[in-house]
Amino acid sequence: MIEIGIRYLEHYEGLPPLVRMTVGSSGFDLCAACSDVVFIEPGKVVRVPAGFQVSVPHGYEAQVRPRSGLVLNSRIGILNSPGTVDSDFRGEVGIIMYNFGDEDYVVRRGDRIAQIVFCILPEVELVNADELDETKRGSGGFGHTG
Q1: Element (H, E) at 68
Q2: Residue 53, φ and ψ in degrees, nearest 5
Q3: 21 torsion bin: left (phi>0), alpha (psi -120 to 50), beta (else)
Q4: CA distance 100 to 74
Q5: What is the pLDDT of residue 142?
Q6: DSSP conformation class of 81
Q7: pTM for the structure as a whole
Q8: SS3 string of 61-93?
Q9: Taking the domains of the chain in order of start, what are their residue ranges?
Q10: Does residue 69 sit in helix, strand or coil?
Q11: Pair 95, 114: CB distance under 8 Å
Q12: Please, which residues bridge with residue 29 across strands?
């Protein structure tokens, strides 16, 4: 098991610690650490503070991801998803929320609005290549299969 340091900021006070909601959950739920309600109008983007900092070890990243129920039921998503928290970042984690819906969405302090997943990264070295190996797909992308 990898231990990852977390520092809850003053404006997180009174909110529950980050936890996995079930034994099989890959992510820890993130709560809104806003001091007041946040209104997200349709088509608008808002950064909601998560109220903590993490010390992600070298060779790992943290990914801020949407909660599926929030997207399905309220049409609220996270832009730049997954949002990456690099191992050398020590600032406050924030959630960049977007309203895909037709009505205002209200975020209240303590609402579970996202999840964070910690992932190991392979050591990779990019090397110049005159040619790449061929695949059946080739250069097809962006919906080329229909």
Answers
A1: helix 68-74
A2: -120, 150
A3: alpha
A4: 8
A5: 76
A6: S
A7: 0.88
A8: EEEEECCHHHHHHHCEEECCCCEEECCCCCCCC
A9: 5-120
A10: helix
A11: yes
A12: 115
Provide the 8-state DSSP code for 130.
Answer: S
| Strand ranges across the sheet with 76-78 | 45-49, 94-99, 76-78
* Residue with token string 């819906």: 101
Distance CA 108, CA 36 (A): 7
Reported as a single tens digit per residue, the pLDDT across 29-83 is 999 999 999 999 999 999 999 999 999 999 999 999 999 899 999 999 999 889 9
User: How many whole angstroms separate alpha carbon 146 and alpha carbon 143?
Assistant: 6
Q: How many CB atoms lie within 10 A of CB 29?
A: 16
Long-range Cβ contacts of 132-141 (<8 Å, 24+ apart) = none
Kindly report the number of other CB atoms within 10 A of residue 18's CB atom.
19
In this structure, which topology does domain 5-120 adopt according to CATH? Deoxyuridine 5'-Triphosphate Nucleotidohydrolase; Chain A (2.70.40)
Distance CA 129, CA 114 (A): 40
Q: Give 7's Cβ-side CA count (13 Å radius).
A: 10
